[in-house]
Amino acid sequence: METYYDPKDLPKFGEIGKDAPELAKKFFEYYNAVFAEGELTEREKSLIALGVAHAVQCPYCIDAYTQACLEKGSNTEEMTEAVHVAAAIRGGASLIHGLQMRKVSDKLSL
Amino acid sequence: MNQASIETGSALAIAPFATTLAKNKISLTRDKTTTLQINIGFLCNQNCRHCHVEAGPKSDKIMDAQTADAVADFAEAGGFSTADITGGAPEMNPNLSHLIEKLAPSVSKIIVRSNLTAISNGKWDGLMEIFQEHKVTITASLPSLNKSQTDAQRGSGVYEKSLAVLKKLNGEGYGIEGTGLELNFVSNPAGAFLPPSQASLETRFRSDLKRKFGIKFNNLYTFANAPLGRFETWLKDSGAYGKYMDRLVREFNPCSVGGLMCRYLVSISWEGYLYDCDFNLACDLPLAGRKIHVSEMTGPPAPGSPIVVGDHCYTCCAGAGFT
What we know:
B: eight-stranded mixed beta sheet, 8 strands, globular
C-alpha cells in the first residue's frame, strides 16, 4: 500500500458487507433511499452531499459527488458555491467558539 | 497497466460490445426502419470538442445535389415517416433547401439538427421560409444552462449567440404552442460524465429558460457523448478515456437494447453510403459490413437484418439508454 487512500477502492465500497452483510444491506438500503428523488431533487441532494464531503474531508466522497453533481446537471459555479457553504459552516463553527474564549478570558481578566 | 495505457488513460481490456450482447443472449437486429437520417456533411462553423464526426470550418466533405436527389428518391421509395438531417451544420450546405423540398412529399416529418449559430450567419431569411412552409422540426444543441459549460464544449461566445437565436426562433413561432413549429433541444454533457435524467433536465431547462430569458421549447433529449472523433481524442489526451469507458461498460443495461435508434433508422453519409447510425458512420462501419450506395437501394433494410456494432455502442446502452 503506497497511500492510505486509493481511488480504485471507491467502486469496491460494497465489499464492506463481506463480514457484516446484514448491517451493510441496511446501510445501503438507507443510503439509496436518502438519495432518491423526494421533496429535494437528486441534483439538490448531490450538491448537499458535495458540501458535506468537503466538510468531513472525505476524498472518496469528493470524487463520487463531483461526478454525481455533474451527472445531475450541476455546473462548477454551483458546486463551488456548495463548497463555500461547507467552508462557511466549518469556519463559522470555529469562530462561534470564540465567544466561549471571550467568556473564559473575561472571567480570568481584570 | 502499461506505460501507453497510463498516458492515454485507456481502459484495461473492456469486454467487446459484441461479447457483452452474446453474454446477455441478445441478438441486435433491425425492427421496421422508419427514420432516414441524412448526414449532409462535416462542414460546420464550430469546432465542438465532443464532435464525433470532427466537423469544422475547413471540411470539404459536403453532400452534393446529385447525392441529395438520390437520397430523396430513396426516401420516396422507402416509406419512411421521418427524415432527420444532420451534419456538421446542415445550414452550411447550399443544397439543404433543395433537399427539404424534395423530401417533403415523401415523409411526414423533417428534422434539421441545428447548432443555433450557423443559421444566424446570413442564412436566416432563405431557410426560415422553407422551414416554416414544411413545418421542419428544429432540434438544437444546447448542452447546459451554464455559459462556462456550453462555451467549453462548443466554443467561446456560443452560449450568448444561442440564446439570441432561440429568442428569434420563438419570435418566428418555433417552440410556441399551437404553431406546429417544433423546437427541441439535445443536451450532451460538457465532459467525461453521463447526462442527467432527461425528465429532470427538461423540467429545469423549461423553468430556467422561461424565467431568465423568456425562451420556450417543446422537448429536450439527453445523449451521452460517444468515445469517437474529437471527443475520443480529448478523452485520451486528458487521461480520462479508461475511466469513461469503464463507466459506460459498468452501466450497460440489457433492457435499453430494444429501444436503440439503430433498430429504427438508417443513416446516410454525405457521399451517399449507408450506415446503421451516425456513430457507425463516424468510424466507417458501413451497413451490413460493406459500402452500399443509396442509389443501389430499392427500400429500407429488412427487419431482422443484423446491426454492425463496435465498442462505442456502449454509449447508447448506458443506464436508461440514450438514443
